[in-house]
């Protein structure tokens, strides 16, 4: 398994076929497969001595865990009386997240891969604990908030990278996934959509007071962060050439909002 555009698309199709369920599809949208995380995972596995079958299984099962975590994040909470359809969607979203999570366990149990099951289960526990701290405890600073968000975004991949003893791109992965999350949150807010991160920052006591202040701080931080990230990416070893090119283009596409020509 060598990471390439074709390989990534094939993996996406396999993951999509795993999570597709005819009953869920009638009532809730199909889950989004995070291509950036898929690319990073595939690049990590490319440089292991694992068999091609096991590399692919590790990528697919880790992405199933990510999809389960993302799906549970979509569950709405309100104290108000909801309509029947809203309640049903909420219940099905919870069940869908549990279903996707169960799939990773099922696939790895068929391989009798208990150590990898423990690795993913431990990561899930840590990420959920981090989310509770982020959403239900006060933060002392904007930087502390960003540090927690960075861990939440990258911890699953970093735990898997540590398990397969390939941690070279862990730092870059953390920087890129945080930047990507913030760019997505900024875009959602600017388009008038709900941004849980910006909403959280505005609501937290002692944090930034208004959405305008949050957006200004976010933009300033992103400018510095992207510059540092580009330098980190450029320093990756030569055998990560395809990954470097992918991240380089993604930065320009998402942050500068204009694609660049791929390097030869």
Automatic annotation (TrEMBL):
Highest taxon, organism lineage: Bacteria
InterPro entries, per the entry: HEPPP_synth_su1
Pfam families associated with the record: HEPPP_synt_1 (PF07307)
UniProt protein name: Heptaprenyl diphosphate synthase component 1
Source organism per UniProt: Halobacillus amylolyticus
């Amino acid at each position: 398994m060598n990471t390439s555009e074709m390989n990534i698309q094939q993996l996406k199709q396999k993951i999509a076929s795993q999570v597709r369920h005819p009953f869920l599809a009638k009532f809730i949208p199909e889950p989004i497969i995070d291509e950036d995380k898929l690319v990073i995972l595939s690049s990590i596995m490319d440089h292991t001595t694992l068999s091609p079958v096991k590399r692919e299984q590790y990528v697919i099962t880790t992405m199933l865990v990510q999809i389960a975590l993302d799906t549970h994040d979509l569950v709405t909470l309100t104290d108000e009386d909801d309509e029947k359809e809203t309640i049903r969607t909420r219940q099905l979203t919870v069940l869908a997240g549990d279903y996707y999570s169960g799939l990773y366990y099922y696939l790895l149990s068929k391989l009798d891969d208990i150590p990898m099951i423990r690795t993913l289960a431990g990561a899930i526990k840590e990420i959920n604990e981090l989310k509770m701290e982020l959403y239900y405890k006060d933060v002392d600073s904007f930087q502390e908030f960003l540090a927690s968000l960075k861990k939440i975004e990258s911890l699953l991949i970093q735990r898997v990278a540590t398990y397969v003893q390939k941690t070279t791109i862990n730092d870059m992965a953390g920087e890129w996934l945080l930047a990507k999350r913030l760019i997505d949150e900024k875009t959602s807010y600017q388009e008038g959509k709900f941004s849980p991160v910006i909403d959280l920052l505005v609501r937290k006591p002692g944090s930034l007071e208004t959405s305008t202040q949050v957006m200004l701080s976010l933009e300033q931080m992103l400018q510095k962060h992207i510059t540092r990230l580009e330098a980190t990416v450029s320093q990756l070893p030569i055998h990560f050439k395809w990954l470097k090119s992918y991240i380089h283009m993604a930065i320009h596409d998402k942050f500068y909002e204009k694609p660049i020509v791929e390097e030869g």
